[in-house]
Every structure is written in structure tokens, then in C-alpha cells.
Amino acid sequence: MNLLIGIGLTFTLFAFFFLLRAVRCTRRGRILRAGGSGLGGAMSAVLAGAALLLAFNYYSYGRLISEKVISSIQFRQMAPDEYEARLMISGERDRFYRLRGNEWQLDARLITWKPPATILGLDPIYRLERLSGRFSDIDRERTEARTVHALSPEPLLDIWAIATQFPLLTPGVDAYYGTATYVPMADGARFDVSLSRDALIARPINDAARAAVGHWGTVPE
């Protein structure tokens, strides 16, 4: 990150240098030199902005070195097909959400790196995106109200959003969703949510959760 910040500040200085040079050349009537300096300043400003944007986003996401538990979630039934979800993230206050249905899912934004960005030695990063509930019955899913909760505020400039919408402008950035398979909700059930480099995995960690999962082969014990 120090390298990214250093690159950003260096190109910022270059941008100011070219700007001042363009102003001096314009005053002396050297229009071609002024245009060249202006172009150099614009390119330096773009590179500085890109480096500083990447550094800011890198700090705002969590780092992913290997598969790790990023959160735990526990459910308390409030009414038929309505649960209170307690989301527990290390270093943060517990969050409580109401979910309708009988299954839940957690989504995250994932960013990994490919050439040329790999030369920076950056770790993959992630940000929890949303928590949602659904009905396993298709007819009820179509007709009854669902619940979806945002887990992170949308930043003004987000490298993930830019990379997904304008991939040609972000070479070296691989941005995609990581999604945990829908898992059943049950009163008292508690799950750990692990994140690998390409997926979220929900694992039951108490008897209520294991009983709810039952024969679901998609959720590893």
C-alpha cells in the first residue's frame, strides 16, 4: 500500500510540474510545448488518480490471504417464516436483521489481481455486500415479500464497480461476486461463513444448524 500511495503522490507531483510548465510555455507563446506539457500533465493526473483510488479501495476492503472465517450468523425465530439474524464480524459490533422465508444467503464483492497489477504484490480483497432471505417454495417466492439487506455503504468511487462496468479501463483487476449457497434458517441455528479466493462457504457449527441442514450435501460439515 505504501508503494501505491507513493506512486500516486509521485504522479501527482508530475501532474503539477507539467501544469506549471504548460502555463509558462503558453505565456512565452510556445504553444506546441504547452500542448505537450498539458498532455503529460493529464496522463500523470490519470495515473495518480488510479493509484490513489486503488489504494483507498484496498484499505476499505478486507484482505484475503487464504480461506478464513469472515463472519458468524445466528438465527432466532420471531414468527412463522420470519427470523432475526445476528451477524457477527470480528472487530465490529453485532448487527441484527429481520429475514423472511426459510433460507438465507450472504454475498460479497471479491477482487483478485492479474497482470499487470500482480507486480504490485497485492492480496485478494473482499467486502460483504448483502444478506438476503428467500422461500424454498417457488410459488411463495414469487408472491410473498422478500428481504434483502445491504451490508456495506456504496462508496463514491469503487474499484469493483468500475472494473465490472468498464473492464478495459481496469487492466489487472478481476472483480466478481462470491455467493454462499442458500442455507436453511432455524431457531437457534448458528453458522460460520468462510471465504476462499472465489466463493463463500457456510458451515453449521451447532446442533440446531446441523439439524436444519440435514441432508444438504452442498454445505460441508
What does it look like?
The strands form two sheets. Strands 1, 5, 6, 7, 8 and 9 form a six-stranded antiparallel β-sheet that branches. The chain has a five-stranded antiparallel β-sheet with strand order 4-3-2-10-11. The longest helix has 30 residues, at 31-60. It has two domains: 2-60; 65-213, no CATH class. With 221 residues, it is of the alpha+beta class. Helix 1 packs antiparallel against helix 2. It has five helices and eleven strands. Strand 2 (68-79) and strand 3 (82-88) form a beta hairpin. It is 34% helix and 33% strand.
Which features does this protein show?
221 residues; alpha+beta; elongated; disordered C terminus
Task: Present the secondary structure layout.
Blueprint: H1 2-27, H2 31-60, E1 62-63, E2 68-79, E3 82-88, E4 95-100, E5 103-113, E6 125-134, H3 138-143, E7 147-150, H4 159-165, E8 173-179, E9 183-184, E10 190-195, E11 200-204, H5 207-213
Antiparallel strand pairs: 1-6, 2-3, 2-10, 3-4, 5-6, 5-8, 5-9, 6-7, 10-11
Helix pairs in contact: 1-2
> What is the quaternary state of this protein?
single chain
* Main sheet characteristics: 6 strands, antiparallel
Please trace the helix and strand order, writing H or E for each element: HHEEEEEEHEHEEEEH
Mean pLDDT: 79
Radius of gyration: 24 Å
Count of helical regions: 5
Q: What's the gist of this structure?
A:
By secondary structure, the protein is α+β, with helices and mostly antiparallel strands. The protein has five helices and eleven strands, in the order H-H-E-E-E-E-E-E-H-E-H-E-E-E-E-H. The protein has two domains: 2-60; 65-213, no CATH class.
